[in-house]
Amino acid sequence: MAQARAEELRRLLNRAAHAYYVLDAPEMEDPVYDRLYRELVALEEADPELIGPDSPTRRVGGAPAEGFTSVAHRVPLLSLDNAFSPDDLDVWYGRLLKVLDREAQEGSQAPALPMVGELKIDGNALALSYEQGVLVRAATRGDGERGEEITANVRTIRSVPLRLALASPPAWVEVRGEAFIPEATFTAINAERAERGEAPFANPRNACAGTLRQLDPKVVAARGLSFFAYTLHLPDDWLAGPRSQWQALDWLKAAGFCVNPHCALCPDLAAVKAFCDRWEQERRGLPYATDGVVVKLDDLRLQEEAGFTQKAPRWAIALKYAAEEAPSRLLRLTCQVGRTGVVTPVAEFEPVPLAGTSVSRATLHNADRLAELDLCAGDTIVVRKAGEIIPEVVRVLKELRPEGAARLELPATCPECGSVLVREEGEAATRCVNNGCPAILRGSLRHWVSKGALDIKGLGAKRIEQLVENRLVHSIADLYQLNAALLASMEGMGTKSASNLVAALETSKQQPWYRQLYGLGIHHVGEVNAKALASRYRSVTDLRSALDETPEILHEIPGIGERTIQSLINWFSTRANEDLVKSLQQETGNLLSENAQFALSDDTNQLHGQRPTALANKSFVLTGTLPTLKRADAQALIEAAGGRVISSVSNKTDYVVAGEKAGSKLTKAKNLGIQVLDEHELKTLLNET
Ligand SMILES: NC(=O)c1ccc[n+]([C@@H]2O[C@H](COP(=O)([O-])OP(=O)(O)OC[C@H]3O[C@@H](n4cnc5c(N)ncnc54)[C@H](O)[C@@H]3O)[C@@H](O)[C@H]2O)c1
Ligand SMILES: [Zn+2]
């Protein structure tokens, strides 16, 4: 089992390394490579018999590409060991102290060794050879021992000095550093390539590698490469040489190199960690890509003492930033039914750390995406979680697919209620259209009690599930029929929490009506739209009559467009929703309308203080041009007296104020027998109150 897996991993990693180092066309994301690599390292550590001569853990980089002369490096260019967390740094540091024989003595702390923190620029390592102060050769890292000679290309990089700025340079100097392409240049290069119909580079590092291997130096010159120097090698007998990495960086600067300005000399490991933390954030503001921080022991004598492992120095480590992508093994495919009935396939897999958390489930979006991924049972998948984004499955590593694995598809029936799932033409979503589906019910209950809606404490997902399962609740309205005795009989619910919950439900009725509207979970009616609608219509009844009579009037409300209006109409014309509204209104008293405190929003309450009540609940419609009052002024006066101005006439309208050129609204008012006022009559009415 372990042997087969190790072989599989070796094959996969070697192929990926070839694509990455030699072809400049990576097959997988770096974090994916890193994780598979670590899996192989773990297998090899557990059983050294598994280490094959072709294992990527024994090798640096890739073979020199054809088309260039291969040259031997005077000093080999190694790789770096990776750390992926502060804990890994501790382990590395502890090991280093041990190798240097400086472990903590009993009763005293471990000694602090100064270290240099450098940004890990995501480019390509270059080896520059100077003789008598003149650049004579530049080469890629290659396999660490031999690289490709690319001197002509490197000469075009402005930040690589062709002659060192030193009066009397050593006989030879070897400088290592990173060639890279700034992000902006990278974007421009890809835009150009797209215009010419060429495939874009995957990332700046690849663009840089591809450029360095151009056969025509003129093309390289046009690509705008830069170079940061970070390592210096001098002849052993050169006495004026630096004694620390920090001094080496100064030496490089004095010799005319560009050294990354964000290096820091850290007195101890705590300072190193602070440096890493800081750049994990600030790197996003840099004009070039970085993929971590390189930590190096400062003292060169100690570096020598610590030495090297197979392929990397013991005195340095690269801390890679939290991966946003990683591979994992698929355990099963499940389906989630949302409150709108949409069925989302979900991949459940072996937990992996991603962007700082452990992730074991990721969305597969919909049936199309599932088909596109071509997912089979037991597949190794690549999962992504970037920042706040919900984890998703980005790819399947088909090379690792078990033989004869079965293809995975969405089920034909709802996993919750068993009814046949429906996918309408032109729609990406597959839905359960059974209104009684417990999943839909649970979803709408969860939404109703959520923070932005009725904000009912004590009704978490588990409790809701319990209520639905025990058939105590069949709709949102049923929540308000629950009594403490019944609740207290439920598993895990005491008398105290039962009465608290009943009290919380009771107070929730006082929530502003826009929250209730939002809580209904109507498509396109989020918090903002709910607020806008609720500030125009005082209750669900007002809103409904506007929708029935003059839906186009809703366009006047900021943010409300055709989509929202259509969705509202659809929602209200569904039988089950109609029933829900009815029971919420009847059985619970004042739900779904503005309540006594005019609690539209906290701000308006503060603004108006106690509203006058004389014209409270009286609704006015303004139409036509009044002789002296502007429309806004008339509205202000009405509102100051406690009334409110709505835009459409219905049999609920109390007064219509009509001026010159009044149109259909006046006709409608007359037909409905609503009292019509002119400006004078309006003023009289306002003065009376
Ligand atoms: N995507 C793939 O398929 C694939 C394949 C192979 C390798 N890789 C990537 O390459 C990594 C391993 O490659 P590696 O051996 O080049 O090691 P590395 O990239 O982990 O570290 C060594 C390299 O870091 C660079 N570097 C940047 N700043 C530096 C600084 N201040 N000091 C020293 N070095 C600095 C140098 O180019 C150096 O060669 C893997 O972790 C993986 O992410 C990816
Ligand atoms: Zn269902």
From TrEMBL:
SUPFAM superfamilies documented for this protein: BRCT domain, DNA ligase/mRNA capping enzyme, catalytic domain, Nucleic acid-binding proteins, RuvA domain 2-like
Active site: K120
Cross-referenced CDD domains: BRCT_DNA_ligase_like, LIGANc
Name of this protein: DNA ligase
Similarity annotation: Belongs to the NAD-dependent DNA ligase family. LigA subfamily.
Function: DNA ligase that catalyzes the formation of phosphodiester linkages between 5'-phosphoryl and 3'-hydroxyl groups in double-stranded DNA using NAD as a coenzyme and as the energy source for the reaction. It is essential for DNA replication and repair of damaged DNA.
Cofactor: Mg(2+); Mn(2+)
Gene: ligA
